[in-house]
Amino acid sequence: DSGVTQTPKHLITATGQRVTLRCSPRSGDLSVYWYQQSLDQGLQFLIHYYNGEERAKGNILERFSAQQFPDLHSELNLSSLELGDSALYFCASSVVGPEQFFGPGTRLTVL
Amino acid sequence: AQRVTQPEKLLSVFKGAPVELKCNYSYSGSPELFWYVQYSRQRLQLLLRHISRESIKGFTADLNKGETSFHLKKPFAQEEDSAMYYCALSGHAGGYQKVTFGIGTKLQVIP
CB under 8 Å, gap of 24 or more: what pairs does A101-105 form? Predict the structure, then answer.
């Protein structure tokens, strides 16, 4: 599959814990975007990386951080987890231009 | 600042009835508008973009700059159209391209 991949698919953890979500963009795509999707808030943009550099920040909490590595994969780190962080986390990639290709998402459940 | 508003969280229509999913935007320049769709248990995917002016799966959307709208329409709804629909705007902010998504509208087609 040459599309965007995300691991893990599901993650169940406890409040106060720290997790790392991983995203591999499509081959050749330099941009990676992270989104949080919840029932009441829809799709919320978190952060955008382009070729290893942070390009834009959205509604990302200070407890959350991300990075993009030289091989262009990206990780989203969520710490001091709260119940309200339970959501679907999507990664998307693009080469140039605004069309984004989404991954299947990681479902995070915080108990 | 750029903003996308989708006023309806849920839209229910009967099979065969016309569908109109509303999207209004706020942007000072010339925007690029998109509709993304997310079917149950599938990843978000691009449905259509205003510059292509094409019809996909019977859906069309016209950019109305006077009303700053990009409503998605289909004359006869099908059960397989049931999905989550997101309107998105691509503009430039601080020298970078920025994509903003609306909160999404869940379309429910009643058999």
Answer: A101/A3, A101/A4, A101/A26, A101/A29, A102/A4, A102/B36, A102/B43, A102/B44, A102/B45, A103/A3, A103/A4, A103/A5, A103/A6, A103/A23, A103/B43, A104/A4, A104/A5, A104/A6, A104/A9, A104/B43, A105/A6, A105/A9, A105/A37, A105/B43
